[in-house]
Amino acid sequence: MSYSALLLLIVALAIVGYWLGKYRALAQVGGGKGIRRLHSLPSYHGLRAALWVALPCVLLLVLWGMSQETLITSMVKGHLADQQLATDATQVGLFMNDVHNVLSGAIPAEGASEAVQAAASEYQQLRSIGARARTGMVLILCAAGFWLARRRITPELRARNAVESIGEKALLLCSMIAIFVTVGILLSVLYESILFFRAVAPHKFLFGLTWSPQTAMRADQVGSSGSFGAMPLFLGTMMISGIAMLVAVPVGLYAAIYLAEYANRRFRSWAKPLLEVLAGIPTVVYGFFAALTMGPALRSLGNAVGLEVASESALAAGLVMGIMIIPFVSSLADDMITAVPQSLRDGAYALGATRSETIKQVVLRVALPGIVGGVLLAVSRAIGETMIVVMAAGLAANLTANPLDAVTTVTVQIVTLLTGDQEFDSPKTLAAFALGLVLFLVTLVLNIVALYIVRKYREQYE
Q: When you count CB atoms within 10 A of the terminal residue's CB, does the N or C end of the chain come out lower?
């Protein structure tokens, strides 16, 4: 039985366990008239029985899925060693790759060797045995779980406490998974970055002025030794992100103020959703708009006033990126402004303040933590954008402060370095992880600054 079929079976058995556990609890007190004798409601007894049926089986499926292929592969490799079909680890790896290709259908079984066909047949047989054993163990666990849950159902059983305890542990597990994933990503990036910094000095990477990561892949190959000065990437990222924020923050914030404080309900009812539609447009569409419309328009305007504008420029990418992230600023700012209590506005009006003075002196100050959060989200979105930069700003790592020139960003170079077949022990590929570590640290600093601002103003108005 497949995993999806087993999951459906577990859900069905859990539902059956719920109803049987619920009616078992009612039967213990003589029906609905004696329900007051139960410590917990019958539904909690049913939920407890359903959890006892489902959780062990789900845990078994997870562990089984993580270990089955590894165990079968090791058993097949052991048989190869016994038959002396392959002794070298590389040969064994190539042999097992052929076996997996035959099993997946990538290679016809008739075109493989007899040894590969025999190993594939054994592999498939072990899979079938494992599937039958898995189904049997799931059924046994379901029956055992329901039997144990039903046996312990008594009027004094604290079923509600047990269910809430399981829910609390599930929430804790989810939070720990998020933390472990974050720590795992950080450690993996940090490890690869350390390998990179063993080959390239950190100060040359952080403060170097030339970015040319092409290196020779073999000792006898003619090629560049590579130059990993990332300063042009950092300046390009800051320039494009800065232009985008100069567009998004004023427009988004002023739009939020108007929609929340000045616009009537009819205008707000269609203007706010229309503004938020911008957030759902794919970035590749913005990239096409920047490359085919904004770039040529800026170039024509520059030629008209005597300025030389590159066909791919930081200004075009920044302007379009700013349009893209306007909804991130306006939507969160609007929510924060509308959440300000009306009593604060009324108090300001009672003291003689005008509407604009109330907005500037009261509403925006109270809503500042949420507005800062929206701006931080917009900054992170701008720093991490890739498609618009590729299509509108280019791939040239130019060290320039002129927004009319072509530049590139950190994220674009990460994608470029990791595209195609790469050696993950060369400085060229490892440079992508070093760039990712820098982005992580920049985002961390932005979060710390935002938390400081939020705490400072929250204390003033609580």
A: C
